[in-house]
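Bug: token stream looks shifted between consecutive jobs. Job 1:
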Amino acid sequence: MTTVGFIGSGHIGGTVARLAVAAGYDVVLSNSRGPETLKELVDELGPKASAGTSAEAAAAGDLVIVSVPLGVYRDVPVEPLAGKTVLDTNNYYTQRDGAIPELDADSTTSSELLQRHLPTSKVVKAFNNIYFVHLQALARPAGAADRSVLAISGDDAGAKGEAAAFLERIGYDALDAGTLADGWRFQPGTPAYGGLYAGENENFWESPGVPVGASALQAKLDAAQR
């Protein structure tokens, strides 16, 4: 794998792109406003970065990151992602996305909605439970004593392996949190969401980020309730 495509290049997408370029990947960025609006980010990232349409980013990526508001997930191109592993960073926020009855009833999860939209792709939930500032700050090389772990969930073992390898290369260990249906365990409102990487007793917005190991993250996943 050499190229990572980005459908959505905001706070999380842009941060993952920075980590990917630092790890040696080529990246193709996209957003809803057009490639020309990404010039500043492309210039920052240098020669390993380029911008295109969402379809072009989807087609170019060996691995593709989807980081768009959940309310527009149906705009993600389907055909260019066929057969590919797609990392889904989405979260459900009713104030932004509007009410989605299936999610309100807990009959499915946000990543399962994306998987339904992308039936020929292999969706893995990742990066959704960490603030982008902490995501940038906590990346560490393999073997570092203060290396953090991030949860992933998915229905395809090979895709989860690909996701874990990507995380490994950009500075994180991966913890397998189960299937896409299990992804609710680190969605908004759960103990594993957000605050864990800020430190339990720190001001979230002022925290520089606190390393989180596998046992601490697993304990939070286990404590989740619906």
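Job 2, same session, no restart:
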Amino acid sequence: MSLHNIRLEVMQTLEKNIETFVDTFLITPEKIWQPTDFLPNSQSDSFIEEVKEIQELSKELDDDFWVSLVGDTITEEALPTYEAWLMDVEGISQHSDNGGDNGWGKWIRAWTSEENRHGDVLNKYLYLSGRVNMREVEITTQHLITDGFDIGTARDPYKNFVYTSFQELATYVSHNNVAKMARKKGHKLLAKMSKIIAGDEMRHHLAYTEFVKQIFKHDPSEMMLAFHHMMKHKIVMPALNLRQSGGKIGDTFDQFSIVAQRAGVYTGFDYVDILRKLNAAWEIDKITGLTDEAQKARDYLLKLPDRMYRITERMVIPDTKFDFKWMNPA
């Protein structure tokens, strides 16, 4: 049986329990929070005063913080790209042979619907803050969706689920750090909002981590090789192609990445910590029945966090002041 057929068979096996995954890791629209729960009510007499309060508090947070938040928001807003990418993964489809719904397609749409709220609430909050040039933010968002991305997984479900397991935890870390910083500056509403978004990302991380855990049971060697491939080539960020108006594809990402590290929103140490957590969550040191090649891949993965930590320790984050078109003066 070819690798393609084995992967398809494993995906079909997992699909039989997709309803359980949806019920366990996702929440219905009526029960979950919605963006308006965190925003001033435009029909309230106190609306203008609440907006003024947000704008006054927003002046207390520096440009690095806002650039990081803008980048996070744009990343969330590029959701159509991620849904389209995942719908094209082997074994995932909006169609099935009997004309009904493919279970994986249902999972992706339900996951997308939860993720959609993140960009929605953050976008509105940026607009109310008065700290950013929303037209420039909107141009960058449109470019990012137009330019698409290549995360190095092709249509392989194993590699894709490694990516989503990693990336959902990375977004948890990023939003959670934003929440801590906002709280320190007395920005309680933004802190609460970011914290609850982080909670969503953690649930999604746990779901994709569970998918990989199940695949390890069915196809351990190939799953290990897929994990090895993704980490050897490094996890690229969804905003890799970030650019501003008049710019070239990807020319803003490095600057944004430096600012996010400098602000402490997402750092190289966070990357290493996520890898450690994935190694532990999948208990790769205990997996049996591996081929020689997969054994070597496992050895590489177990040693990689310490090696990357030493490299990260030597990194120097520039204190360069970048001019982002997204920013308004405080």
